Amino acid sequence: MRICHGSRCGSKGIQRVLLLLLFLQSLNAALATLGPPQALQERKAAEKVLSRKRRYVAFPDGSSLSASICLTIGVIGNPIVEYLSWAENWGVAYDLPNYAWVKEHTRGFKKDKDENKTKAMAMRRSRRDLFGKLETLIENMGFNGNACIARALCESSKYLQDARQGRGNMMTEIIKTIFSLPTEPVFGEEPDVMHHYDRIYKRARRDVLDCSVEHAQCHFSLLEMAFGKYSIAPKRQSPQLLANMPEGRGFM
What we know:
Elements: H1 11-34, H2 38-47, E1 64-74, E2 85-95, H3 99-104, H4 119-140, H5 145-160, H6 170-178, H7 192-206, H8 211-214, H9 222-226
Pfam families: DM4_12
Protein name: (Mediterranean fruit fly) hypothetical protein
InterPro entries: DM4_12 (IPR006631)
């Protein structure tokens, strides 16, 4: 742009300056209309709902979850076990999902070989397999395995699944998951033992009953054993261990 001096800077120069200012003002207005103000952009970014892909946990091939119980009974002066005692050890291993299993069931269980299979049926099948192993172990110890599993389902449904009971510690959540059944009805083609377990589980939620009396053929509680009741001296044992769950006291 040329600068004028003296009388040479007439109306023509002033017109050029005005035209330049008008052009800059029009350009600024056009740029402002191209996008929303910065404050509006920041507000929309804060209100935007972010999406997250489904996550999963996959363990190395051959991984398993093992649980073992060691029972020691003093033959002379129980619970004093220094002199003569009798010990019984038993455990169970449960296969953990690996990468291949996770990829196969990424979108649920509908792509399984059996098209009529549902997620609830698959969950009940895994529970049935685990309960069968536990029954065998309990019966090898001289107890009624079927009655003890039934009592554990009854106590889990009555106490651990109570609406007033919030989330517990890791051990409580594991026991709650193992001894729980889906709310969906059992299909007719499923084994009779699954119908038997489902009736016990739902009846405990519906009726007022004492699980230790209802399943008196089992002389101990699997849930209380898992939470350590039988590993402390009798004078410190609480007979209300499970009954205190809805009050928020929890376990351990």
